[in-house]
Structure formats: C-alpha cells, structure tokens
Write a structure and sequence with these properties.
The structure holds two protein chains of two kinds. By secondary structure, chain A is mostly beta strands. In chain A, 0% of the residues lie in helices and 56% in strands. Chain A contains no helices and twelve strands. In chain A, the strands form three sheets. In chain A, strands 2, 5, 6, 10, 11 and 12 form a six-stranded mixed β-sheet that branches. Chain A has a four-stranded antiparallel β-sheet with strand order 3-9-8-7, with no helix packed on it. Chain B has strands at 5-7, 10-13, 19-24, 31-37, 43-50, 53-56, 65-68, 75-79, 88-95, 106-107, 111-115. In chain B, the strands form two sheets. In chain B, strands 2, 4, 5, 6, 9, 10 and 11 form a seven-stranded mixed β-sheet that branches. Chain B has a four-stranded antiparallel β-sheet with strand order 1-3-8-7, with no helix packed on it. The chains are: A mainly beta, B mainly beta.
C-alpha cells in the first residue's frame, strides 16, 4: 500500500539550531515524488520543498533541505538555523501517478515548536 | 501573482443543507485537486480535475459529494445534505501540469466547514 509515515508527533528545537523531521514512505512505483508542507496555526498549507525519485541531488530551498535516501525509503526534512516562525505542523507527502491520475498521500504530521 | 483562492474561508451549515466551496487555481494552472483534513489528521485526497474533466474521484464519498471544474469560472466542490461528519477543512490545490514545476501542488487557504 502507498503510505507515508511520520513517527514524531512533536519535536522541540532551540532557536538557531538545526532540526530533522523524519519521513518514511512505502511505494512500489518507480516514479514518484516527495513533498514537505508547513501548516502554521493560521491553517494554510505552505509548499516548502520537492524531491523527485529520479533526482540524484538532494533538494534544497533556502534553510530547508531534503535528505533523500532512496534505498531506505526516507525523505527527512532538515531545517537549519531554526526561527520562532518555524513553529508549525509539518507534513510529508508522496506524489502518486496511477493510470493518468495524480494525487498526494500525506503523513499525519509533526508539530515543531521552536523555543527562544 | 495571486495564489490559489478559496471562498468562503469559513462556512457554517445546518444538517441537511447544501455546502458549495469554490476554488480558483493559480494563473496558468489547469489542474485542480481537492483534499479534506479532519482535526488532528493529515490531508486526504478527494478528487482531481482538469478543465471540464474529472480525472480521478476515487477519494470522494459516493453519495452527496460532487465536484466540477468548468471551462470558465472556479472549481466547485458541492456537498448535499450535509451531516456533522462533513465538518472539516477542505483544501484546494492547483498545479501547472506541464513544465519543470508540473508536479508542484500549491494549496489555497482552505474552507473550514462546520455543520451544526
């Protein structure tokens, strides 16, 4: 079954430190993609970063990087130099392409709290 | 560049009424997706549409729910005869469907539906 697992319901980090949010996935597809989204308390879903299954380099976007380990089926998000505004829910999602359709499958999320 | 627009942001309906949720995709995006988020959960795929076509509605409940994306105007998610279990946040996402960023789904702010 196509599935995303985020094993950390909550994480705490000190301001200015780095933090890693875990994500593992399960799929038999050869072509897929992995996303991370941020959902602050205001509720919107903010796209952070994307990694395609054939991309050889790990994706980076500013302070966000995706540690993609294909053999382990993991796609962890690394946030460097945490800021108070990083406190939010973080969702890992997998893009599935089946029979002409596209959809995202989401994990249950990790609540990140950045302490001053 | 306007992002994905959804309205209303909050909607209260009594049991048995109809709910209509609207989504205008980002400029240049022709693919629209609807997702539902129950409290403390990740998002669940409902339906994937392109202009005038439903591509995949495998995540939609078989009864009371329908979606459309007409040639002109926003995409509409319609819920007839709402029940308390329909209370959730409904998110719309859009993607360009072609080009380098064809897989990136950008989300609207969501519509919070409350059924009383």
């Amino acid at each position: 079954a196509q599935k995303i697992t985020q094993t950390q319901p909550g994480m705490f980090v000190q301001e200015k430190e780095a933090v890693t949010l875990d994500c593992t996935y399960d799929t038999s597809d050869q072509s897929y993609g992995l996303f991370w989204y941020k959902q602050p308390s205001s509720g919107e879903m903010i796209f952070l970063i994307y990694q395609g299954s054939y991309d050889e380099q790990n994706a980076t976007e500013g302070r966000y990087s995706l540690n993609f380990q294909k053999a382990r089926k993991s796609a962890n998000l690394v946030i460097s130099a945490s800021q108070l505004g990083d406190s939010a829910m973080y969702f890992c999602a997998m893009r599935l392409t089946q029979g002409g359709s596209e959809k995202l499958v989401f994990g249950k999320g990790t609540k990140l709290t950045v302490n001053p | 560049n306007a992002g994905v627009m959804q309205n209303p942001r909050h909607l209260v309906r009594r049991r048995g009424q109809e709910a209509r949720l609207r989504c205008s995709p980002m400029k240049g995006h022709s693919h629209v997706y609807w997702y539902r988020q129950l409290p403390e959960e990740g998002l669940k795929f409902m339906v994937y549409l392109q202009k005038e076509n439903i591509i995949d509605e495998s995540g939609m409940p078989k009864e009371r729910f329908s979606a459309e994306f007409p040639k002109e105007g926003p995409s509409i998610l319609r819920i007839q005869q709402v029940v308390r279990g329909d209370s959730a946040a409904y998110f719309c996402a859009s993607s360009p469907g072609e080009g380098v960023a064809r897989y990136e789904q950008y989300f609207g702010p969501g519509t919070r539906l409350t059924v009383t």
